[in-house]
Amino acid sequence: MSKATGGPDVKIEEAKDKVIGAIAETMDLYGVTPAAANLYATMYFEDQMTLDEMRTELGMSKPSMSTSVRRLQEIDMVKKTYTRGSRKHTYAAEKNFFRSFMAFYCQMWEREVKINLAAIKEAQEDFIEVIKDSHSTPEIVAKAKKYYDQLEESKTYYHWLDDLVENIRSGKIFEFLPKENKK
To answer: Residue 39: is it exposed, middle or buried by C-beta count within 10 angstroms (0-12/13-18/19+)?
Structure first.
């Protein structure tokens, strides 16, 4: 057992700093800047914080703080909260990692599905025009058919991804991958 170097309060802060550092280090998975990651990790241990408290705690500039809070709100990692009798905005970090994961990745996967299926639809329409065009050579028609079929096969992935999102949002995913506390 190591010797305490400053009492229980110091030990608590050191323990929190370990988790804050780890969370901040891995938040790049959510596409946030190191400043926003550090902010979220710090807020994780607080009930709620005002922008002034965040700036004091982290020493961030006002523009950087506002940008970080806004980005964290966009990905549902931070919510604006209401404090009765206070005119200052307060914010709370999402502490349920399942909810954070689900909100963020479902949002990203839905975007991927929407953008790629729209592009596939347009491209397949173009390939059909080339196939039907009387001026297209047999080689060009064969190439257009090959690419059309390739895109048709890729739709399987995007429909699967869409189903995955639905199963995550509905909670059905937990029937296959239960939330268990594996210590």
So the answer is: buried
pLDDT at 107: 92
Q: Are 89 and 156 in contact (CB under 8 A)?
A: no
pLDDT: is 116 or 34 the higher one?
116
Can you tell me which residue has the tokens 């995913």?
173
Note the pLDDT of residue 5. Answer: 64
Going across the sheet that includes 49-50, the strands are: 49-50, 90-93, 78-81
Type of residue at 171: G
- Beta-sheet pairing, 49-50 with 78-81: unpaired
DSSP one-letter code for 149: H
The label of the residue with tokens 């550090």 reads: 38
pTM reported for the whole predicted model? 0.77
User: Looking at residue 171, what DSSP letter applies?
Assistant: T
Q: Which long-range contacts (CB under 8 A, 24 or more apart) does 153-158 make?
A: 154/116, 154/120, 155/117, 155/120, 158/112, 158/113, 158/116, 158/117, 158/120
